[in-house]
Design a protein that fits this description.
196 residues, mainly alpha, 2 domains, two-stranded antiparallel ribbon, 8 helices, 58% helix, 2% strand, globular
Length: 196
């Protein structure tokens, strides 16, 4: 992102692990990055845990960082780590009421991802990620209990930072716009209304 395109200073949903600063006392209180994640999604997991605990997560647009990164989907076990850690974050961090209301959408997403993985040649990584999350479940649930003890905001307040829009270029444009986008936004309004 060019500096001119950086958003204004203020709160954001998640920090980027490429450049983040967390006061040491806050880092220690919330356990830092999820140790078992290895890489990918650990920054989102930390950001969501901080938000759940009532901490402020923000951006400083004048900070300048050089991060040499290029997403190559074929590199090693990248899809496995991305998927495993995405699912682990949902289990560890998302409030129960929100997970319950999102369950139909999450299940549909999983089915769509399995199809996309098969079409993209990474079905083995997706299945391995799912199996690892199942094997991790006792540990994830224990971590969830510890995270829940630090929670200081409601499920509805947590949901305010999230969006129903699918903006990733890796998701087909037909799913990101038009009728699917309207349906997702309507579903999200319903979820947010029920969380009140």
């Amino acid at each position: 992102m060019a500096i001119a395109a950086a958003p204004a200073a203020g709160e954001v949903t998640a920090l980027s692990g490429a450049c983040l600063a967390v006061p040491m006392e806050v880092w220690r209180r919330h356990g830092g990055l999820a140790e078992k994640f290895f890489m990918y999604h650990e920054d989102v997991d930390l950001s969501l845990r901080l938000r759940l605990a009532g901490e402020t997560v923000g951006i400083e647009p004048t900070a300048v960082v050089a991060h040499d990164y290029e997403f190559t989907a074929s590199a090693g076990d990248k899809w496995r780590w991305l998927e495993r850690n995405r699912l682990a974050t949902l289990v560890r961090v998302y409030p129960g009421a929100l997970l319950l209301l999102l369950a139909p959408a999450l299940l549909a997403t999983e089915a769509a991802l399995l199809l996309a993985a098969a079409a993209g040649g990474w079905a083995g990584q997706k299945l391995r990620a799912n199996a690892e999350v199942v094997a991790w479940m006792p540990r994830l649930l224990s971590e969830r209990r510890a995270i829940r003890r630090q929670r200081n905001i409601s499920a509805g307040e947590f949901a305010k930072a999230l969006t129903p829009d699918l903006d990733s270029p890796f998701i087909p444009a037909v799913v990101r716009s038009g009728v699917p986008r309207l349906l997702l936004r309507g579903y999200w309004r319903l979820v947010r209304g029920l969380l009140r």
